[in-house]
What does this fold into?
Amino acid sequence: MQVLFTKFRTPNKNIHLQKFLNMKKLFVTLLVMASVTALHAQPPNVSADKGAIFGEKTTEESAITFEQLSNELAAKKDGAKKINVKLKAVVTEVCTKEGCWIKIKGTKGNVMVKMKDHKFLVPLVLNEKEIIIEGIAEEKVTSVEMLKHYAEDANKSKAEIDAIKEPKKEIVIIAKGILVL
It folds into this structure.
């Protein structure tokens, strides 16, 4: 009787084992697909109409110009060139990979604006829009490696990327929130 029972149960165990292995394969496949999707992140496909907010809520009140920001940073001692700012600016470029940074028009060229901790992204249609940025501005040196990374994100040519040979002293803004005007 014991032998009959064992022979009778063996196929059921194999069926359960097979179901378990199939579920495991399915789970691994879904995990890989989710990872690939996450790795191919893109900027959000949303509008950037007047009043749109990205990140933390901010207003136009007390916003300064880039020239005023430059003057405030210049007045600070070396090593303490970091201030909270609400800045009115025009977007000149948006990261085409994820929307994780923008460049704005400064007094001596474009200025890098990064999204704080990548907590929010901006759409490509933000390009050429007037905005208010609330965040922290600081004067710092950006490494060659980071400059090349930003150039890759902006789909620059290999020649343009290879031409980057020196670090760049610049004003960088870490945005907490952006308001479209």
User: Anything to note?
Assistant: Helices lie at 2-39, 66-75, 144-153, 158-162. Strands lie at 53-55, 82-94, 101-106, 109-115, 130-142, 168-180.
